[in-house]
Write a structure and sequence with these properties.
alpha/beta; methyltransferase
């Protein structure tokens, strides 16, 4: 496993990858912060493309990411995370929308749990999921960060 950090305009981001792709991305100020494991190799050069795309996102020239992803999760979680990747920048979905998108409309709570377990924040855009009332709901990086990300993307939501 490889590890590095990137200081973004919205705070420090930890990046973890294996030879297949990115396995984790977490804002370090949130409750999903990643602590470097002793067996991980700190190799910033392995993350050059990810960091380049993150920089482009933060300056507003990138709306989609194109890096290999290798998240670990159950088949259900992976189906939710794939559905999240279909939410375009500037759009928001509800948990119900995601449940419908994965052809399991009764799985709204399970979708919420899978959304919260997303290991690759920002690139797998779990921050684009809001409550059915249009208001912000939980985010591992905190609601303040979620709000900033959605405003950066031009999304509409209620506070």
């Amino acid at each position: 496993m490889y590890y590095t950090t990137y200081l973004s305009p919205m705070g420090e981001i930890a990046l973890v990858a294996n030879d297949d792709g990115l396995t984790a991305l977490a804002f370090q100020a949130g409750k999903a912060a990643i602590k470097k494991q002793a067996q991980w190799q700190e190799e910033p050069e392995k993350f050059q493309e990810v960091v380049k795309q993150l920089k482009e996102y933060f300056i507003g020239t990138r709306v989609e990411f194109d890096v290999p992803l290798a998240p670990t999760g159950t088949p259900f979680q992976k189906s939710v995370w794939q559905a999240l990747c279909n939410i375009k920048q500037g759009e928001t979905y509800t948990y119900s929308d995601i449940a419908t998108a994965i052809n399991n409309p009764k799985a709204v709570r399970a979708v919420g749990t899978a959304n919260g377990a997303n290991p690759i924040a920002l690139i797998v855009p779990c921050h684009r999921v809001i409550g059915s009332n249009g208001k912000l709901t939980g985010y591992a990086g905190g609601l303040g960060l979620k709000s900033k990300l959605l405003m950066h993307e031009g999304a509409h939501f209620s506070v």
